Amino acid sequence: MNTLPDASLPVTQSRGELVVIANRLPVHRPTPNSPWETSPGGLVSALMPILRERKGVWIGWAGSSEPACSPFEHDGLYNVPVSLSAEDVRDYYEGFSNSTLWPLYHDACQTPQYNRAWWAPYVAVNRRFAEVAARETAANGHVLVQDYHLQLVPGMLRELRPDVRIGFFLHIPFPPVELFAQLPWRQRLLEGMLGADVVGFQTRHGAQNFVRLVNRYTAHRGSGQTILVNGRRVMAREYPISIDYDRIQQLATNPQIVARSQEIRKELGENRTIMLGVDRLDYTKGIDQRIRAVYEIFKAGRHTVKDLVLVQVSVPSRESVDEYIEVRDRIEKLVGHIDGEFGTVGAVPVHYLRRSLPIEELVAYYLAADVMLVTPFRDGMNLVAKEYVACRRDDTGVLVLSEFTGSAVELDRAVLVNPHDIDGMAATIERAIAMPPAEQARRMRSLRQRVRKRTVYTWASDFTRALTAEQPTGAQPDTVDLNRSTS
Ligand code: G6P
């Protein structure tokens, strides 16, 4: 099943001038026989205009282990599905991507598994994507490779198509040397990323970690934002991703959504302070610690269900990976515990919604919430924080934000917390609940300005501009680190 059925399918359009490669296609089918629908998300909407303008192609997995269907056009974009067998899903997606790289890159907040049987499938699937891209990209075209699933693709594609310019963007954190060094395949992964001309990260720290690692574990040398790879200049820097600010603002002023938010407030109790959490159901998001902090607030007795409530929306994710099953169990036990202890007939401290909500409904919740809790242990960026801020046009509301998110770099006027410190988090949430309106307004105004200034469109244009800019070859890095070793 690991041959190249997709690559041999007839090509019905001329090759793409701009090609995006991501683990997932930007479309999905709610049921196997229903028509394709565009998946929600800022990345898709940000890249869509440039893709349509530049004969774009999107290469990705359609999300099931069925054999991939033929390339097709949807909403002005040419989609090229790549097939993953059931074994690929197990070893490349659930295994190496989500049980090795994902926990390691998120500060090893769950123990990463270094299973040797997953490496070969990861290499094989990356090669499959690279071969499809090599076939689909026009001469001198541009290719944008997305995320940790496909870190080897830039290097493989460069070998197949030296004429194309390649950008790689990592949506999740890139870890410090001490953590990345654990990876038995560290050098191969770094070399794979170095196949790109521009390697983008969410934060400056991520980019700096990458340059340090390249110096230590490869034969190439880098300094500042530049790495020299056999006379070719590779740029490594931060491009913080964001949201479609105008779209969120429009939704936040839509009369039906505003009415829905008032209804939510009424249902929850007009006089209660509403706290909100919205996350993929992932162990990196710190949902359990957040609920523990809320537990401490009720236990201290300064608040009761009469005046305080948390709505926790948890979107199911990667449900066949053990750690995801475990974190769901932990959270559900905690919700039962806190509701059992502090709830009354008719009022509970935590409302737990385990489902995905349409963006219109989410915005209604953002509008209804007085305090937004975004408390991951580690997060590449976190767009929920930015969406909440974009909705708060009347300058009310408080964002409580983990200092370990990429968003905290820009949103430093949020109330920052350490999610590992339950007592500290409880005290900070209480401070947020009690924050005077004038302080809320000062902070929220400044936060909104930050989000308005750098949207997902800024991200897309900065990243593609860096890629299309002519780069002088043979440039020397500023300094050379002589202390590096290779592995
Ligand atoms: C993160 C990753 C994305 C991924 C998403 C959903 O945001 O950076 O690449 O698509 O999670 O996860 P899933 O495994 O369902 O694609």
What is the C-level CATH assignment of the largest domain? Alpha Beta
Strand order of the largest sheet: 5-6-4-1-7-8-9-12-11-10
What is the CA–CA distance across the termini?
Answer: 33 Å
- What is the CATH homologous superfamily assignment of the largest domain? Glycogen Phosphorylase B
Q: What small ligands are held by the chains?
A: 6-O-phosphono-alpha-D-glucopyranose
- Let me know the average pLDDT: 92
Category from helices, strands and their pairing: alpha/beta
Count up the domains: 2
Strand composition percent: 15-25%
User: Do you know the CATH topology of the largest domain?
Assistant: Rossmann fold
List segments where confidence is low: pLDDT < 50 over at least 5 consecutive residues. Answer: 1-12, 472-487
**Which term fits the overall shape?**
globular
Number of strands: 18
Q: Residue share in helices?
A: 40-55%
Structural Rg: 23 Å
Number of helices: 17
Biggest sheet character: 10 strands, mixed
State the CATH architecture of the largest domain: 3-Layer(aba) Sandwich
Name the descriptors:
single chain, 487 residues, alpha/beta, Rossmann fold, 2 domains, 10-stranded mixed sheet, 17 helices, globular, disordered N terminus, disordered C terminus, binds 6-O-phosphono-alpha-D-glucopyranose
Describe the structure.
By secondary structure, this protein is of the alpha/beta class. It has two domains: about 15-240 and about 460-470, Rossmann fold (3-Layer(aba) Sandwich); about 245-455, Glycogen Phosphorylase B (Rossmann fold). It has 17 helices and 18 strands. The strands form three sheets. It has a ten-stranded mixed beta sheet, sandwiched between helices. The protein has a six-stranded parallel beta sheet with strand order 15-14-13-16-17-18, sandwiched between helices. It has a two-stranded antiparallel ribbon with strand order 2-3. The protein is globular. Mean pLDDT is about 90; it is low at about 1-10 and about 470-485. The structure holds 6-O-phosphono-alpha-D-glucopyranose. 6-O-phosphono-alpha-D-glucopyranose binds near residues 23, 147, 172, 317 and 318.
